[in-house]
Each structure stands twice: as structure tokens, then as C-alpha cells.
Design a protein that fits this description.
CATH superfamily of the largest domain: L,D-transpeptidase catalytic domain-like
Oligomer: single chain
Shape: elongated
Distance between the termini: 85 Å
Largest sheet: 5 strands, mixed
Strand order of the largest sheet: 22-21-20-28-23
Length: about 425
């Protein structure tokens, strides 16, 4: 084999204007063209920093693959573990060395396929396999629980991930975040947001497409997160979305406009929160539907002797906050619906229209309030207010962004399980 360094021609399949003669083929073929040759066994020319025999590799160290000498170059490396996870890596500019850029998993077998070409442009290949050592005894396992439960949701439903142990530093968070994968058909641009040390939310830049399929998986099993914490296997989650259903309540105009896939399907006279109890502005997401709910003023601090006191059995109640904001039937206020705001924070309407609304919405559908004197729905802690953060602000909550997630200024409020009739 000739190991004299030489310039290599660039082989391309771009369109060329040529005159073909007998025996000449384009972009490889028979007649001895290097690209048509069967790859030779390059075991002597490719080396890797993995042990031989039954010894186990250290998962704390990156995988490195290199060309022996300077007369060939690596053209491709594929490293896959037994579960089908691909190990990300980077090839040096001269093609002499490849190294992994994502962590190896502990207690896992990898198969590595390396393609190269020698100084003459002839293709070679080597396949090798190795196992990594198991996590040391005494290490904790980081478990992940995805949410919500499998099913069909509205296009505003965020994906959630709850960790079994806190992860605080940004480098460890980045390891976790890279391993938590969300794929949708149709594809969308989205990102995770660290709500706190143990909880993440994932949402797209815009709402999910209607009739989408969303697959949520974790590649964290066996991955070292911290010195004392290794990833555990996680059950995958599959979600689907239904039609795009949006309810936009204009508190100043006292109307709710309901749309399906962008088309108005109903305009409903409503009443919202009166002064001192103004309904929250912003985008909320349907949390649940409850046919009957007892609502009492005392649960939100209203004395039983106050003129504002109430104790009502409410029907067709669609919950949008954990603190007790609902869209529900309010037959006692039909005279004000469409004209005035007289509630204690909920959106009230006639019984027949509340039943209609109750029947067409599902968890994950969008309920937006505009024109109210109330504050804006908080992003977290009282339901899904995720959409009230701009996309730029949302990205700041990712550990994979350059800006530090710890600099974000949003406030997470604790949930109050109290109805606001």
C-alpha cells in the first residue's frame, strides 16, 4: 500500500456537461474506481480507547477513535448502544480523530462502525464493540415521570417531566435535557424549560399543530448526571392533539368567542370578575372538566357574614387554574351576562351554553382572557400559564442556551386549591 501523502481529488455527483466514452462511469462504479471498491478491513489502521477482551470501559471518559499515522482519514463514525441510542461525536477537521461529545452510559454495550479512506482514496472500515462498567454501588438513580398521561389533548397542552431528585447545576441540567426527547408529527420547534430543580415543561414555539402525534422518550438510562446520580430507565409517552379549539374571553366586551381550527363556531355572552375579583388576563389551558363543583366564598377568604359570601353548587365547570378559576354555568347572573362583570373571578354563562362549552372542550384546549383589570396568569404553579412567556423568554429556561436559566425573573406561585365563582 502506498502511504505517500498526496492531494485527493474531490468526487462529486453534481451535474456536469461531459462527453461519455465507453468504460467511463460517473460517481463511482466498476472498472476499479476507488468508490466502487469493497471496503477493506482497516483494523490495523483504526484504533480506539476501549479495552480489549472482557474488560469494561470507563463511562466517565469520552470515546476516542483515531487513524494510526497520517496517511488516511476518517469519513464516518457511528456509535450505537444496545437500545438504539446514538452517541453524538465530533470529527477533527483533518479527519484524523473523532471523539464523543455526549456521555457514555454506564453498564451498556456499544457497537462502533468506523469508515475511512487511505492515502489512495480506497475505502476501509472497522467495526468494534465494547461494554462500559456499571455504575458504582451506592449511586442513586434519577427517575423521570413524563406527563400528562397518554391520551388526546388540546394544542396548548405542555409536556411535563418530573425528576425523582433535584438537579441544580447547569452542566448536569444540560445532560438531563439532552436526554429528554420530544418529537412530533408534524415537526415543530420547541424547548424544555426548568420550572425548578425537579420539574421541566416542554412546549413548542407556537401551539402544537392540530391532529399531531407527540412522542416523548428519555435516553438518560445509565448516564452519569452528577457524581452520585445516574439516569434510570423511563417509560415513554405518546400524546395526540385534537382540533385547535380556542376560547377568547373579552372581559371588557363581556363575550367569549370560541374557535375551532381558526373558524368562529360560537359567540357567548359572559360575565367575568367584578372589581376586586377581576379575572386573570392571559392564556390558560383547560385542566379538567367537572360536572358539579361546590363553591364557597370562605375558601377564598370571604367571611360568611359578608355581602360577597356565597355557597353554590355549580354545574358544567371547566377548570383553568388550580386556585379555582372555572368557566361554568351561572344561571343566577344571566341578566348581567353580556353586559357587566359580577363574578368572583370565574367566567359565567347560561346553563345551556356552559353545557355546550363543556362538551366541546378537552384538557389542553386554550382559554384566553383579554380586557380584564386583573393581573396576567402566572406561567407556573397555578395551572399551565406557559404560553404567557414569549418564546425568547421561554428559551432562557433551557440549560442548553448560552444565557443562564438562573437569571430568569418570572415568579412561580404556589397553587391555591380554592374555587373563585
Amino acid at each position: 500500500m502506498n502511504h505517500t501523502p498526496r492531494f485527493r481529488p474531490v468526487v462529486s455527483c453534481t451535474l456536469l456537461v461531459v462527453t461519455l466514452v465507453a468504460g467511463v462511469t460517473a460517481c463511482g462504479g466498476s472498472n476499479g474506481h476507488p468508490l466502487a471498491a469493497k471496503p477493506y478491513d482497516a483494523a490495523d489502521e483504526i484504533s480506539a480507547n476501549v479495552p480489549e477482551g472482557d474488560d469494561k470501559a470507563d463511562s466517565d471518559k469520552p470515546l476516542e477513535v483515531a487513524v494510526n499515522g497520517d496517511d488516511g482519514r476518517i469519513t464516518d463514525v457511528s456509535a450505537v448502544d444496545a437500545t438504539g441510542r446514538h452517541l453524538a461525536g465530533e470529527l477533527d477537521a483533518d479527519g484524523q480523530r473523532w471523539h464523543s461529545t455526549s456521555p457514555l452510559a454506564a453498564g451498556t454495550r456499544y457497537t462502533v462502525r468506523v469508515s475511512m479512506e487511505d492515502g489512495d482514496g480506497a475505502p476501509g472500515s472497522r467495526t468494534l464493540s465494547f461494554e462500559t462498567a456499571s455504575a458504582e454501588a451506592g449511586k442513586k438513580l434519577l427517575k423521570v415521570a413524563f406527563g400528562p398521561e397518554a391520551g388526546t389533548y388540546g394544542v396548548g397542552q405542555p409536556v411535563t417531566a418530573e425528576l425523582s431528585a433535584p438537579v441544580k447545576d447547569k452542566a448536569s441540567r444540560a445532560i438531563v435535557e439532552r436526554a429528554l426527547r420530544v418529537r412530533s408529527k408534524p415537526a415543530v420547534t420547541g424547548s424544555w424549560y426548568w420550572v425548578d430543580d425537579k420539574n421541566l415543561h416542554y412546549r413548542p414555539k407556537d401551539y402544537w399543530p392540530a391532529k399531531a402525534t407527540i412522542d416523548v422518550t428519555s435516553g438518560l438510562a445509565g448516564i452519569k448526571v452528577t457524581d452520585t446520580l445516574y439516569g434510570a430507565p423511563t417509560k415513554a409517552l405518546k400524546l395526540t392533539t385534537g382540533d385547535r379549539v380556542e376560547a377568547i374571553t373579552d372581559a371588557a366586551a363581556h363575550t367569549m368567542t370560541v374557535k375551532r381550527d381558526g373558524k368562529v363556531i360560537n359567540t357567548i355572552p359572559v360575565t367575568t370578575g367584578k372589581p376586586g375579583f377581576s379575572t386573570r388576563n392571559g392564556v390558560k389551558v383547560v385542566l379538567s372538566k367537572e360536572y358539579s363543583v361546590r363553591m364557597r366564598g370562605e375558601t377564598i377568604g370571604i367571611s360568611a357574614s359578608s355581602s360577597d359570601s356565597y355557597d353554590l353548587q355549580v354545574y358544567y365547570a371547566t377548570r383553568v387554574t388550580w386556585s379555582g378559576e372555572y368557566v361554568h354555568a351561572a344561571p343566577w347572573s344571566t341578566g348581567a351576562q353580556g353586559y357587566a362583570n359580577v363574578s368572583h373571578g370565574c367566567t359565567g354563562m347560561s346553563t345551556s351554553l356552559a353545557q355546550w362549552f363543556f362538551n366541546i372542550v378537552r384538557p389542553g384546549d386554550i382559554v384566553q382572557v383579554v380586557g380584564s383589570q386583573g393581573e396576567t396568569m402566572t406561567p407556573f404553579g397555578n395551572g399551565y400559564g406557559d404560553w404567557n412567556l414569549s418564546w425568547e423568554k421561554w428559551q432562557q429556561g433551557s440549560a442548553l442556551q448560552k444565557n443562564d436559566a438562573s437569571d430568569r425573573t418570572d415568579t412561580i406561585q404556589a397553587a391555591r386549591l380554592r374555587p373563585e365563582v
